[in-house]
Amino acid sequence: MPPRYIQPLTNLLPLVRLRPFAAIREKLSEGYSFADLRCDLMAGAVVGMVAIPLGMALAIASGVPPQHGLYTVIVGGAIIALLGGSRLQVSGPTAAFVVILAPIAHEFGLGGLLVAGMMAGLMLILLGVARMGRMIQFIPYPVTTGFTAGIAVVIATLQLKDFFGLRVAEMPERFLEKVLALFGARGTASGAELAIGALTLAILLLWPRINKRVPAPLVALTAASLLGVLARRVFPELEFATIGSRFTYETGGVVGHGIPQALPHLNFPWSFSGPGGAPLKLSLETIEALVPPAFAIAMLGAIESLLSAVVADGMAQTKHDPDAELVALGTGNLVCPFFGGIAATGAIARTATNIRYGAKSPFSAVFHSIFALLVVVLLAQYVSYLPMAALAALLMLVAYNMSEVKHFVHILKVAPKSDVIVLLTCFFLTVLFDMVVGVTVGVVLAALLFMKRMAAVTSAQLVQYGTHPQLKEPLPKEILLYDVAGPLFFGAAEQAANAISGITDDVRVVIFLMEGVPAMDVTGLVAFESAIAKLTRHERLVYLTGIKPQPLELLRKGDLLTSNSRVRFCETVDEAVRLGKKALADGRGSQESISQPGRNGSG
Questions:
Q1: What is the Cβ-side half-sphere exposure of residue 239, based on CA atoms within 13 angstroms?
Q2: Is residue 559 packed enough to be buried (19+ CB in 10 Å), middle (13-18) or exposed (0-12)?
């Protein structure tokens, strides 16, 4: 390769630097003992007991059979933990994905959902390679709180059908239509399913007060399953939906109920069924139609996973590599669909459980995947007894926890009006339409309101005759000091530039003090150059002082300042005042006086 091509490629290397197995390598370099292994095994088993029912419930809520949620826990959870940059994070299907995955599964079927997850994985890898992991800090808190609370409302609403045992022929797509359909079916409620759901919810709420070592979901769902079996023995005519009655599978021509007792096997994502159970027709049109939902999966996955990693760092005093985490998340979502797994991301509740139960390394998340695998292989037949009302109760509690009601109300009480507007906009748009609309509008609205606030921060003070901290003595009437403070960007540049309109005709020298300008964009440059051109057209002299590095570099690139001899850079205000007075004494600001030797461009 010619040498002239090597240097540009070398310059790109820091942008594509990858650190696979980052968290594991860091832990192993510190030392990994048998005691650490024991802690990881215990934490992995506990988290696995939580992840198994959640994986099934979230898969069902997303519109696919429950085993596909377990395949996500098994395959995605292990791969992301091994490759990732967060030491204690646990990944898998999460409730936030439901509002995105359910419409995809409805329109494109399981095969389309898996292909969309694979495409999202590729996008996440590209985000990690481009080192975009730090971009999460630019998502405003009211936006994340608003769409998270909105997602929680949607998820909880969808669970009412199974929690009350309502008979709805087909759920509409729009939220308000779903609410009306559920309300219209209120007369079909089942007392048996309501009793099972209420019992499950009561155990989920009360058990942590009795015993925190054994996970509440394990106790609640086991009790609900045993109660269901006992009730059917005593009352054979009693009917309520279970995983076994709702879902079937076919293996070797034999139809089974519940989930298959088999390992997840390798298969092409597009070989799974499409909409309505028909074969998925993979084409360029299908891929094009899946790009927007795949992008939504990637963005939500990145946001939730990196937020979860930040929470884990705060709880365990660790530090994660966000770019490595994105690459690992992308790899997991790229591989997972080939084993029937749906989209995965960092799960905050499971990560917190992992930390509370003493996890020491990413191996705990790997063990949680192995535990789920053992349950599928050894205990799959017993999963069919799990009532749907119990899973609905579990998801309702998950939805409540993720809604962060206290934080939502706190923002409404104390936040500025602009943040409240962003919060409510994201919330209602997420509920009424979808998360993509809510987040997109919320981020744009937050950016516009932020620019408005920053424009208000940028100020310009005209000092003539009066005093200023930088002046040793009052200025003569022919010299004016123009103190600019705040960033000169496209939202504030015009406001700052308009301040020169008040300059009187007797002013012959204008000094711009710019040490309070930390940054300038091209709009600010154009507005600033226009202001200077207006001044110099009236035979005034312009001195620029105290310029920070970034604005100075931008100004040096501008044609006006390099070609206009009536503009000069000075290091201090004193120097500018001295040169201004000298120019006035020599020729009242004439062209000849400005062409005298000086430190032009010293800045």
A1: 9
A2: exposed
Is 4 buried (19+), middle (13-18) or exposed (0-12) by CB count in 10 A?
exposed
pLDDT digits (tens, 9 = 90+) for 26-82: 999 999 999 999 999 999 999 999 999 999 999 999 999 999 999 999 999 999 999
Q: Tell me which range, 16-30, 36-50, 504-518, is most confidently predicted by mean pLDDT.
A: 36-50
pLDDT in tens, 277-310: 888 888 999 999 999 999 999 999 998 898 889 8
Helix axis angle, 98-129 relative to 34-61, nearest 10°?
130
Q: 495 Cβ partners below 8 Å, 6+ apart?
A: 455, 458, 460
Size (the chain), residues? 603
Domains along the sequence of the chain with CATH: 30-241+255-448 (no CATH), 459-594 (3.30.750.24)
Rg over alpha carbons for the chain, rounded to the nearest Å, is 32
Look at residues 194, 145, 192, 198 and name the one whose alpha carbon lies nearest to residue 397.
198
How many DSSP H helices and E strands does the chain contain?
25, 9
